Amino acid sequence: MTSFAYLSTGGFLKAPAAELSDGRRAHYAVAGVAWDGSVTNRPGARFGPGAIRQASHMLCDGIHPLFDVSPLGHLIDVGDLALPNTSIERMRQAMAPLVDSLLAQHHMVWLGGDHSITLPLLRAYKARLGQPLAVLHFDAHCDTWTDHFGEPSGHGTWVHEAFEEGLVLPQCFTQIGIRSAGERCAREYVSDRGGVIHTARELRGLESPSQLKPVTEGIRQRLVAHGNPPLYLTIDIDCLDPAFAPGTGTPEPGGMSTNQVLSVIEELADLPFIGMDCVEVAPAYDHAELTSNAAANFVWTYLCGQLAKRA
Question: Which pLDDT score is estimated for 134?
Answer without folding.
Answer: 98
